[in-house]
Amino acid sequence: MTSSTRSASNIEQSISKTICVHLCLSVVNKMGIQNRTCFQVNLRDGLCCRVCGRAPESQAHYHRGFEYHHLQMRSEGGEDEVENLILLCHDCHLLHHKGKLMLTLFDDLKPAPTFACHQCNAQNSIETVEMNCGWYRCDNCRKQTHLWVHCGFEHDESSTRKDEL
Predict the structure, then answer these.
(1) Is residue 74 in a domain?
(2) pLDDT of 10-57, one tens digit each?
(3) In angstroms, rounded to a whole number, what is the distance separating the alpha carbons of residues 35 and 26?
(4) pTM across the whole model
(5) 84-116 burial code (b ≥16 CB/10 A, e <16)
(6) Number of helices (H) and strands (E), helices first, in the chain?
(7) What's 117's DSSP letter?
(8) Domain ranges, residue 137
């Protein structure tokens, strides 16, 4: 690899990491929800809307058009806990807040304390696994996997993460 190729690769990795961290932090800063909590909600809900089942358009944009909805509103004492949050597409979220869509009770909101690695099937603790912006590194095999692949969507080669967690 030439120095100019290496330099271009380093710049690409730096930009990719900056964009990923910015998107992740903007969600956390805008809503005040911890990144690990968002990761757990995305994992539990399979990156799809809990009402209509809409899936993201691509791995690179898995977070666009989806919003975290508080079942018990913050103004009524609802907290930013996994059991109080569901993933909704923008359209369903808007319809709900306009009073045109009633949400039913959800029985399966408690997060699992562990999840199986997509690569080696080893169990990872949700509390200790290295993760960032939808990526996690298996505690056992140390391979990085995106929730997009973990949730059963086809891998998008153009979105392969090149930097380290």
Answers:
(1) yes
(2) 444 443 333 333 334 334 435 678 888 888 898 899 888 999 998 887
(3) 10
(4) 0.72
(5) bbbbbbeebbebeeeeeeeeeeeeebebeeebe
(6) 4, 7
(7) -
(8) 3-159
